[in-house]
Amino acid sequence: MPAIEVVGLHKVYRRAFGRRGQEALRGVNLTVPEGCAFGLIGPNGAGKTTFIKSILGIVQPTAGAVRVLGGSPEDPRIRARIGYLPERLHLPGSWTAPAFLRTVAQLKGLVPDAAQHRRLLERVGLEAAQGRRIGGYSKGMRQRLGLAAALLGAPALLVLDEPTDGIDPLGRVEVRGILQEEVRRGTTLFLNSHLLAETERVCDRVAILANGRVMREGRLDELARPRPRWMVRFAPGPEEAVLASGFQRSGTEGVYQLEAEDPVVLNSALDRARAAGALLLELKRDGQDLESVLASTLGEAA
Ligand SMILES: Nc1ncnc2c1ncn2[C@@H]1O[C@H](COP(=O)(O)OP(=O)(O)OP(=O)(O)O)[C@@H](O)[C@H]1O
């Protein structure tokens, strides 16, 4: 059973006085397998938050079908199994973190457990701030509290909209560790983040959303597959020998490229070039990271 199954999802935000509405989703089909770490990426205004709100039953789709954890996102029993960190957190400024977690637990239908809430606050790095009013928290601290609230009740599905927004670099490493622990525990993670390096490190599947449509979707290691191409830098010297050894000019002075699936082919070409007097300075595989996959996908869509 997929954790999330969306078919033909359309969303038009209506405007007042019969003006033409804003089309945020234009027929999205997406299946998120249970237990995977799924990353949603795309440019500003692509429809990512609208998609997330639709799968949580917060936004009513104009058309299409949504199933989450095998049921309707409007079913309270399904909602109780989902942890959600929204893009914009509204927190009660005069409360303390434990009081906030107690209320969220009650709203989720859980029995509040002060010791467990304390452990959760420690896990997100807020142990020292437990007695303080939330109103005095920094942006990153508020985000950490939101994450603790999302983790209440060990949810089967964790939906996080920009979870590390405002969190410092070391804090991001901690948050990444928590997300990886949750995935190991069996939770399905659905992550919307503008930080591609984060998505790359945490997720095993990715979808690219642009203009309200899924442009690409698949396993990260298939989308961002390393190419069988090598970039080689030689010291200034006998260019003819380098070219005769099988390398081609790359467009950057001193850097040559070679297509070779088999490392034996690469090494033979290097041996030939070096025997002819070429001096190797740098060698690297010309891989495709998520940023270049996103850029090429958006380029194709434009
Ligand atoms: N409540 C709303 N009323 C009207 N239009 C909206 C509303 N919410 C979003 N939109 C519009 O729907 C489109 C998609 O917005 P959405 O917030 O889902 O995109 P996003 O991919 O999450 O963007 P970002 O990365 O900037 O957060 C945008 O054109 C946006 O202006």
UniProtKB/TrEMBL annotation:
GO MF entries: ATP binding; ATP hydrolysis activity
Pfam families, sorted: ABC_tran
Alphabetical list of InterPro entries matching this protein: AAA+_ATPase, ABC_transporter-like_ATP-bd, ABC_transporter-like_CS, P-loop_NTPase
Keyword Nucleotide-binding among record annotations: yes
Domain ABC transporter: from-to ranges: 7-236
Keywords: ATP-binding, Nucleotide-binding, Transport
PROSITE patterns: ABC_TRANSPORTER_1, ABC_TRANSPORTER_2
Keyword Flavoprotein: no
CDD domains to which the protein is assigned, alphabetical: ABC_DR_subfamily_A
PANTHER family tied to this protein: ABC TRANSPORTER, ATP-BINDING PROTEIN
Family that this chain belongs to: Belongs to the ABC transporter superfamily.
Protein name as catalogued: ABC-2 type transport system ATP-binding protein
Organism of derivation: Stigmatella aurantiaca
